Amino acid sequence: MTAYDPSESKLNVGYILLLSLVAAFGGFLFGYDTAVIAGANKYLETYFALGSGGLGFATGVMLLGCMAGVMIAGPAGDRLGRRTGLLLCGLGFGLSSYATAIPETLTAFWWARFAGGIAIGAVSILSPIYIAEIAPERIRGRLVSLYQLAIVTGIAAAFFVNTLIQGQGDAAWNTATGWRWMFASLIVPSAAFMALLAAVPESPRWLVKAGRRDAGRAVLERIGGAASAARGMAQIEEALASEEGRWSELLTPRYSRPLILGATLAVFSQFSGINAIMYYAPKVFETAGTETSAAFWQTVIVGMVNIAFTFVSIGLVDRLGRKPLLAVGTGLQAVMLTVVGFAFSRDLGGGVLLVGVLGFVAAFAMAMGPVSWIVNSEIFPTKLRGRAMGVSILLLWLADYIVTQTFPMLKDGIGPAATFWIYAGCSLASTLFVVCCLPETKGKTLEEIEAGWGR
Question: For the whole prediction, is pTM greater than 0.70?
Answer without folding.
Answer: yes
